[in-house]
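request received
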Amino acid sequence: MSLVARHLEEGGIPTVIAGSARDIVEESGVPRFVFTDFPLGNPTGKPYDVEMQQAIVSTCLETLERAWEPRTTIQTPFVWDDGSNDSWRAQFMLVDESNRRTLAQAGDDRRNAQKAAKVKGKGRE
Amino acid sequence: MKDRRTHRSYVSYIDKSREYYGAQGYPQAYQWSYNCDVPFTVPAKPMSECRVGLVTTSFFDRSSDRHAVAGTTDKEPYAAQCDDALGGLYNKDLFWAKDTTHTEDLDSYLPINRLRELESRGVIGSLSKRFYGVPTDYSHRRTQKKDAPQILEWMIEDEVDVALLVPL
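response:
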């Protein structure tokens, strides 16, 4: 998505990204980024929290209007849970001794599925 | 909350995904996009006069394709009426924190209703009648040479002034 933002901007359309994968977006280098430190899935606010969604979208519009140079990142004040905002972080893409074998097996399964799909001729280009 | 930490708090998905796919037996780490130069265009008019275009990585229901595997996507960029998205979009095939949250509320990842409210209050000129979808199929070349130019072309057709992009 960052590459799309860069292309639109080069084409004369100002852009802002609303997202939660800060390192990926900032490494790619985008004009404007509104970061909410949430688990991936709800970059414009918690489900059914209209007030929060309105606040995040409004911040995006203000960032569009007010940023004066590229790589402008604004972090919204919201946290996913009370306190440390950490409960969800460790679980995502967890790799430890409890699941190493399962992950290796999942990799083998996916490679086999990809091989089978290639034989069938699926996929773009 | 006051605290001290030895690591940054926000998740590095570049680090996490490298370790995760490494554990799945992929020897070659994904090459993420990295750029020093960043383009920048200033809006030509106030937000209250701008038409806003929304870009998503979600697609319409692809129930026939639920078992698609990474690297074999046949998704193409698309433009569709905002009204047609109000029932929700399909994104179970994308990578997000499915154990922690859900995407049953469209406005948590594609804020069509929120932008319409802002339109009715005069904060923005209008929301483009169409929104735009782009595949996340991990090919920089395809995104840069094919998908992004297509989205730009649709936005020019729709006279979009500024874009809000929301990757899941």
